[in-house]
Amino acid sequence: MQTVIIGKRSNLSRHLLGVIDDAVSVPVSEAVDYLTQLDWKQHQSINLVLNQFQPATKLNDLSSPTDYVDNAIASTARILQSIQSQAEKINRIVYTSSSSVYGNNPDCKESDVPAPISLHATLKLANEKLLSHFCDHHTIDYTIARVFNMYAGEDEFSIISKIIRAVKHQHTINLINQGGAVRDFIHIDDVVSAYQQLLLTKPADKIVNIASGQGMSVKMILDYLQQQNITVSTLNIEQDEIKTSIANNDRLLSLLDTHSFQSVKDYVFDELTT
Fold this sequence. Notes:
By secondary structure, this protein is of the alpha/beta class. It is built from 9 helices and 14 strands. It has helices at residues 11-17, 31-37, 65-83, 119-138, 159-169, 188-201, 218-227, 250-253, 264-273; strands at residues 2-6, 23-26, 46-50, 90-98, 107-108, 142-147, 149-151, 173-176, 182-183, 185-187, 207-210, 216-217, 234-237, 244-247. The strands form 4 sheets. Strands 2-1-3-4-6-11 form a 6-stranded parallel sheet, sandwiched between helices. Strands 5-14-9-12 form a 4-stranded mixed sheet. A two-stranded parallel ribbon has the order 7-10. The longest helix is centred in the middle third of the chain and has 20 residues, at 119-138. The chain is globular, with a radius of gyration of 19 Å. The model has no long low-confidence stretch (mean pLDDT 94).
C-alpha cells in the first residue's frame, strides 16, 4: 500500500520516508496536482500523512498574513478537496498536529478541551476540526497525532538543537525565564515509530498524543551538562510562557513501549561528546 507524505521539506517527512514501505514524499506546492493526477486504479488504497503547515522557523512571522494562512490551513483544505472523489480509496489519514492546542494545561490528555493561546496553535486546532469533519462526512479513517516537543534529525528549530549548536560553535543562546518551563521532549526516531504503528494498527482513538510522558526543563538539561563539565552560555529573557506541558500518553502506550524512548539528556550529552 502506498503512503503519500505531504510536506517534503519537513524533518519528520524525511525520516518517515526512510522507514515506511512504498512511501512517496510530495512538496505542499505539488500535492494537489500529484493527488489529482494519481492513477487511482493502480492502488487498492493509499495512506495520507499530512505534515504541511507554516514552517517552524516562521511561526511568528506575519509579514504576509495570506501566506501564513495559506500554509497553515488553506493547503489542507485544497488537499482534502482533491481527494474527496476518491474517498473510498483512502485507507487512512494521519494529520500532524501539535501539543500547542492544549494551551496552558499541565497534564495534556486527549479528552481535554483544547485551549490554544497562540495563532499557530489555533490554526492547528482548526485543521484538526476541518480534517475530522471531512473524514467523518466521507467515512475515512483518520488519526490526529498531537506531537509534543520533537528534537533531533535535521532539526534546526528546537531548543535542543540550539543548545548543541551553542556548545559546538561557542555562542550564546537566549533562555526564557531561566529555562524553568517543563516540557515533554520526544526524539524524532520515537515519533517515527509511533507513526508506523498509527498506519499499521488503526487505533480506535482519533486523537493520540505523540510524547514521552516525561517532563524536563531546559534548566535541568543545562544543569546536567554542567555536571559533566559542559557549559552553555545563556542570556535570560523574561517572557510569559506556559510553565508546564506534559502529555498523558496512555493511548500511545497501548500502541508501543514508550518506556524505551530515548532520553533527551542522554541525547544532548552524546551529541556533544561523540
